[in-house]
Amino acid sequence: MSLERFLSQAISSWMSEDGPDSDIVLSSRVRLARNLQEYKFPTLATNEEAALIIQTLEQVIQDGSPLKSLELLKMNELQSLQKRVLVEKHLISPHLAEDSPHAAVLLSENEEVSIMINEEDHIRIQCLFPGLQLVEALQLASQMDDYLEQYVRYAFDEKHGYLTSCPTNVGTGLRASVMMHLPGLILTQQMNRIIPAINQLGLVVRGIYGEGSEALGNIFQISNQITLGKSEDDIVSDLISVVSQLILSERNAREALAKTSNIQLEDRVFRSLGILSNCRIIESKEAAKCLSDVRLGIDMGYIKDISKNILNELMILTQPGFLQQFAGGALRPNERDIRRATLIRERLKLEK
Fold first, then answer.
1. Where ATP is bound, by residue (predicted)?
2. pLDDT for 191-205, tens place per residue?
3. What DSSP string describes 122-153?
4. Is there a binding annotation on residue 303?
5. pLDDT of residue 206
6. Partners of 204 in the beta sheet?
7. Is 339 within any annotated ligand binding site?
8. Residue 84 annotated as lining a ligand binding site
9. Please, what sign has the CA dihedral across residues 89, 25, 164, 157?
10. 226: CB partners within 8 A, 6+ apart
11. Is 113 a known ligand-binding residue?
12. Annotation-wise, does 211 bind a ligand?
């Protein structure tokens, strides 16, 4: 597996597959935060200590564990543009991509597994699945966790659980999240009412790239906030319960739109398709909005000759990092808008 492989393909192997409720739930993610007992947490560790963490995990890989199949990418060996592409694919966090002499990631070939090293914690195990598959993602993350624990000693307290750099992760160290496409709830103006209700349940609603990011293209990330005092299974079960209610609400909203505003909705969908098919310059926000409309049109049967994976693919392909990666260098904002329009037009032509 080469670095070029991870950088050249917009959607990971798992993203091109269907999963349960994948018309609304784009992906499920489970992340486990862990630290090694013998070392200071990354926020306080010296460069020498951080380098030892990398060496320790490299040795684990060489010892023939199931992690041997993972590819190790060191951040100090990547260009800033390459790191940005990995962030846009959700394979690493923006924090890991920041300048650090001893940060790295272990990636599986299908990109389901991503293990970040020396991020906010020594180890962050991330597993990604298509559709609503939080239980399956937790099972795989737990397997990876068990493999590692055979070789290293985690910082663990009998009373508080796994110890982490951020107090909000202490306990299970688990963050479970789903990425959801919710245009129906936006168009029926229900989302502003739903978000506070979700927050009261100990969950948080964020944008497409997590904390501090915007909900581009009506894509929202729903995740747990509480990691202490609940088991991993309970955290995942509670999130699935809320997500299931959101799925039902989104389907009801789409049904209501089809009954009360069908011609207006169909017009919106095909106007957006027309813009994407013919534009010569387009900013990222407008592209995301139009892509959301087209995906909704596909899901509701208005558009029949375009794959529904187009939202996943083009939402990533049209990000600044990918555009510049394909261009072979830095682009000014106006140049990115022109290239984004060209890429979208060419991609839509392939569908016909």
1. 27-31, 90, 124, 175-179, 206-211
2. 989 999 999 998 999
3. SEEEEEEEESS-HHHHHHHHHHHHHHHHTTS-
4. no
5. 86
6. 223
7. no
8. no
9. negative
10. 202, 235
11. no
12. yes
